[in-house]
Amino acid sequence: MPPTTGEITQLLASWRQGDPSALDQLFPIIRTELRRIAFRRLRREPAGQPLQPSSLVQETFVRLLPNQQGEWQNRAHFFAVASTVMRHVLVDHARHRLRSKRGGAAVHVSLDAAAVLSPEQVDEIVAIDLALQRLAERDARKSQVFELRFFGGLSLEETAEGLGLSPRTVVREWRLARAWLRRELSQGDPNDGSVAAD
Amino acid sequence: MDRWRRIEALFDVAVKQPPSDRDAYLRRACAQDLELYREVTSLLSYDADGTTDESWAARAAEALLEEGSRSPQNSPSNSSLAPGMSLGPYRITGVVGAGAMGEVYRARDSHLNRDVALKVLPEFFAIDPDRLARLRREAQVLASLNHQNIAAIYGFEDRDSIQALVLEFVDGPTLAQRIAHGPIPLDQALPIAKQIAEALEAAHEHGIIHRDLKPANIKVQPDGTVKLLDFGLAKALDPIPSTSDVSPSPPMPNHDLTDGGAILGTWAYMSPEQARGGRVDTRTDVWAFGSVLYEMLTGHRAFDGPTSSDVLANVLEREPDFDALPAGTPEHISRLLRRALTKDVRNRLHAIGDARLEVVEALATKSAVASSNTALEHERAALGQQIDAAVAAQDKLARRWRLRLGLVSAALVVLGITATTIVWYLRRPAAPPVTRTLIPTPGTAALTLSGFHRDLALTPDGRRVVYVGNNGSQLFVRALDALAPTPIVTGVNLRAPSVSADGRWIGFSKTGAGFWKVALTGGSPSRLTALDGATRGAAWAPDGTVIVATAGSTGLLRVPAADGGTPEVLTRPDRAAGEVAHLWPELLPGGTAVLFTITTTAGGPDAAQIAVKDLQTGAQTILVRGGSHAYYVRSGHLIYTAGGTLRAIGFDLGRRETRGTAVLVVPQVATTPDGAGNLAVTTDGTLVYVDAPGSGARRTLVWVDRAGMEEPLAAPARAYRYPRLESKGRRLVVRSADGQDDLWISEVQPVNLRQLTTVPGQDNHPLWTPNGQRIIFSSNRAGGAMNLWWQAADGTGVAERLTTSPNDQYATAITPDGKEAVFFEITTTGRDLRRLVLDASRPVTGLVETPADERNGVLSADGRWLAYESNPSGRSEIYVAPFPETQSGIWPISSAGGMQPLFGPRDTELFFLASDGFLMRVPVETSGTTFSFGTPTKLFDARPHITPGFVGRSYDVSPDGKRFLMTKAADEAGTAPPSLILVQHFDEELKRLVPTK
Q: Is the ipTM of this complex over 0.95?
């Protein structure tokens, strides 16, 4: 029985009010729905067409919280959670792929996750994740801004709302975070990074 | 600043500059720090756009960033300078101060080899080229001032995205710092005063007014030379420039202010005309000169007080304590002070040159120690006293009306009325007229009412309206002397603006995201606090805190306005006493007590109470029962909302008690379900409000003829239901449900709706007695269920209770002789028809009581037949039975659903609503002993005229039977956005409508 809009709204509200267990409940709900949507898209869209994670998050929102497009608060906070979920899903998947590619443990790679990432993206996603972790040590807010905008596809306004920042601050944070990450990605070898992180 | 923050700051500044300039900037900014330079340069190289080998991640990021850079928020901003950095030829050597109007740095001019002060302008200058150009022009004019006692303005620097005024750097303490150690002895004070006067005189000759003279703007160098700082900058830096010569508004002290004391300081030196937002000329500087001289001699301010409003009140109304002048103060000086500090600008000393002469004479007299009281001196003193007496008398005469002049003249300037008109007006000693003005909110600036908040506010000077527009995505400021509103914040679901006591800040809420503030001039908003629910009012205290209420039931919270932080709980609703929430805080003058609204579990908005709480003692008193969201007006009144109207009651500020009875002063104000009116009022009586009801339930009263043709009645759209015509058809009564359910009564021609029921509680289902003298209605005003009451239709007397029952009862018919009423009662088994005999004992007997629901019983004109609706089949149908012997027969009239029956005026027809929403007509014959009827036919589609979900009859028929009085949903989409109505000198109207003496 999928959770109702009301239940999800309630969980979001609890999370906003600082109840961490609400997040634990939200994660599987959103993850399940993300997977379902990715799977359906794979069947529908031509091969080799990479799926944008942001559009997946958007569709997940519409499916889980129909008629809530106007409820901007819920939207912003849902997207903030979903962005983190998206990152976890993508990174988990990429790690599995890399491990199996290297002949490591025989991990079954599910079809739905495979749909999200092209082979190049698999490599990059792990690198981005690691770079973001490094960025977070230095500047947690920039890392968060990047996560929401990049993995969640949140707009400027949504990111600002989700993090309680001004849009102007988000622009500033995002721009430096982007430059920093680009530099990190151009310098390191993502595959090495992924092994080191496991 | 740690290293990462420095990298960040440099990167932020660099990316805003053209790529060709970035390297030069970084080399300069990083000075000796090569590693820092390399790091930022490296990051910048990864900021480059459009390279072809972008990875997927970078491409996606790119797309997202593009979206961000198209956003209007991505405007350039000024960045702070830091010692070691350079701006053009100026190398920063230190920080002098920082405040609302930008930072001030000490810098070295490498070309001219002298120290300068750089006043870096705030962001809003950078984004407004017109304003920047204007400032540049004014800086040129000010730079032409060349006087040894005026700190020079060297020029204007605009480079590296930083705009700064380059000023003469003056060392030494300010006069304020000197006075902090105590009064300045006469022999030192007078030479200082002389130099100040000389500087002002020189500037006035150039047509330049300082406008902001105060001890903090005067420096005394070690050699005794006085320098006046910031000459003329008050106007140039006015955050919201005015097109006329009206002064910067008083609550916008545009200086390097960081604390309340400094703000008070600015108020304290403001001339009365400046404080009122009036026209400012050289005499304003004369006033300020007097204030400064007074303070030098006495060691304390001429006008002071614990709060800004006290200071302002003293400036406007109180004479300084001239007895505080030190013994031995020369007569020249005390006379000069009296004449400089004359409130009426026309009677004030006109020229600063005259003041200078008095100082010079005093100095001369003092130095001639022998100058004992010569005959000449006596003569002069006597003459001076005569002049003073004459001035005082004139002043007193003018006092009654002159307080309003500032506002009036400002308004006249807005209206473009010529100077001669103003002069004519100013000479006319009459009470200022009450003026009502519609303020349009055009286009995307359209006023947006959320329905749950007070979505507008006024600055304390009444000169700027702040409101929510553009569907809640922007806050606008509409200055009364401007033609159009200016957006100041853009965001999502912006709500509930409030203005700080000093007028510099706007508080607002974003749905679910706490309480925010932004400068009145715009800039980045910051969140002061998270809240457990949406805000329900915020009041900024002069002490730098904000009292906030939330829709949750927390009570009133107090939050520091500077940096927010954890709210302090001021009040908690008393659950045991049935209190639900404390809402809509507003402060009494001085900020020592807060007015707020208590909602309760029973009675709805009508039962809300207005309380006052002393913030020092915590003592709390109920002031008004049956009202919400009160404000204090200086005319000695509280105004508050009740039932969608604005009411006023006399209020003794000292005793904090109401006086007399409440009077309706504005018949229609958009009101939220929690009782807030969409209105704001300043203490001195400028009112702005929205007259449209906030909800979407607005309906208009319409006549509909038998063919369905409509003709509207000339009544404002409100939440009307149940219109009922007097039997002669000359008057109507209707229930209006905006905010609460009350009954309104009016003639039919012309329509002039007056509120009939005003006591707390819901009143509805009205019914005329046949003689038109009384209205029977249902009410829960006594608590409990809706029982039957009646009240004189002319509004006299009090309502009398007719029934007492635990069940809701609704009267729907009355016998032609007026002796019995028919009503339906909602019992545990359903709805039944009952009758009430209107004699002294008021017995109630059953009429139609079946397991089904019976409702809406009506009587034929001859009183012999009862038509009603009942639903034995599950669907409501119309039935007719003999009255009162209802058991003796029953005729089913409708067969496909029917509701809300009504006999035509001559008993020849019966109307009812079919289930498809058509109004039906059935020919009937009632003259015989039996009832006969024909086939129902459709009259017209009445769906626009009925309110789904409301069971009471939604129409009435005219005595001639030709048309029906109905309601119709107001066309919300097609109507213009609600307008703001500005009332100036509303206090005068209050004095007239609600005399307090």
A: no
